[in-house]
Amino acid sequence: MAEGEVSEGCRLPVLRRNQDNEDEWLNKRLDEWVTHDRLDLKRVQDSQDSSDGAPSAPRMTGSLVSDRSHDDIVTRMKNIECIELGRHRLKPWYFSPYPQELTGLPVLYLCEFCLKYGHSLRCLQRHLTKCDLRHPPGNEIYRKGTISFFEIDGRKNKSYSQNLCLLAKCFLDHKTLYYDTDPFLFYVMTEYDCKGFHIVGYFSKEKESTEDYNVACILTLPPYQRRGYGKLLIEFSYELSKVEGKTGTPEKPLSDLGLLSYRSYWSQTILEILMGLKAEAGERPQITINEISEITSIKKEDVISTLQYLNLINYYKGQYILTLSEDIVEGHERAMLKRLLRIDAKCLHFTPKDWSKRGKW
Fold first, then answer.
1. Pick from 154, 246, 257, 309: CA 20 to 30 A from residue 116's CA?
2. For 318-356, what is each residue's pLDDT tens digit?
3. Sorted alphabetically, which InterPro entries does this protein's record hold (predicted)?
4. Beta strand 83-85 pairing with 117-118
């Protein structure tokens, strides 16, 4: 490889110095073009062509899915430098298929209410004089304090849904369906102030899922991360499942980050149930895995995997029992003290729809 050239078809770890002046190698997040001296050529592997040479069709899947079998050269490189969304400036992490004429701009300007994109601040200001939205389209189905959730039909509000997918793709490393939003519902979480309802994050779900998926994509925007909103989104998805009378699960297989987020939620939710059990007639408290699943709407397989992860299942005198150690109890209590944001089921106004009787959505 000659100096200054980039070989397409192979991944090269990139060297960068961190704040402590130490070398670190980066993954795909925050991809950028770099010079030859910042490439690690020791671990270069040539790409392998598929057996038939034909590209595969993109998967209609969510952000948590770790399968990258359909990744291609174009989608590997981050193409938007900066996004202005309301009072926030966001630095994208990944590629997003915005129109090519917008990808070379120093800043991409978005209306924070309809998510329409423009190439300049003047263009955005002109749009704001015409845009009447001060909240996402669709129905507000939850409000408590300053937090609201809006349910948006991907068929009825196609433009907004497509713009939401484009924005989300800047922070989600996966293949998704940007333009066929008809089969999906989008649940957008907002924070209210005197200027309107500002988008915090969202999740999407299929209107009909044969696998009992209650989440396809899920994202908390960077300015709101590490503040408990991600767990609030997950909790809300399970509250919807409770109203629907179903157990649900996120789309599988989970990525590493997706598994961490869900495992934390599952652990706290299941431990909350177990620690709230009361003994009856001098007997030790009893509960079945099916009962935990019914109470929480967490699918049985996820309940079992969480109990195994926490190492709570033990075999004693011919039967399986759940054992809570002091470390587990104390760790759970500390975690719950930090979890200040919770969904209040009394504030949810949601009526499930039977999409199987609605033709093509």
1. 257
2. 888 899 999 999 999 999 999 999 999 999 999 999 888
3. Acyl_CoA_acyltransferase, HAT_MYST-type, MYST_HAT, WH-like_DNA-bd_sf, Zf-MYST
4. unpaired
| pLDDT tens per residue across span 8-25 | 444 555 566 666 666 665
pLDDT score for 357:
76
Tokens representing residue 27 in the block: 């993954």
Two tokens, residue 30: 């925050």
DSSP state of 254: B
CATH architecture of residue range(s) 75-347 = 3-Layer(aba) Sandwich (3.40)
Which among 100, 99, 106, 101 has a CA at the least distance from the CA of 81? 106
* Residue of 112, 206, 239, 251 marked active site: 251
Question: Cis omega before residue 136 (within 30°)?
Answer: no
Q: How far apart are CA 303 and CA 247, in angstroms?
A: 11
What pTM, to 2 d.p., does this model score? Answer: 0.81
Q: Which of 282, 204, 260 is nearest to 236 (CA)?
A: 204
> Are the C-beta atoms of 189 and 201 separated by less than 8 Å?
yes
- Scanning the chain, the segments in alpha helix (DSSP H) are 121-128, 158-169, 229-244, 256-275, 289-296, 300-309, 326-338
Show the CA angle centred on residue 243, arms to residues 168 and 233, nearest 5°.
25
- According to DSSP, residue 329 is labeled H
Q: Is the dihedral of CA 175, 179, 181, 182 positive or negative?
A: negative
CA separation (Å) from 309 to 264, 302, 305? Answer: 11, 10, 6
251 catalytic residue (yes or no): yes
Alpha carbon distance 15, 1 (integer Å): 18
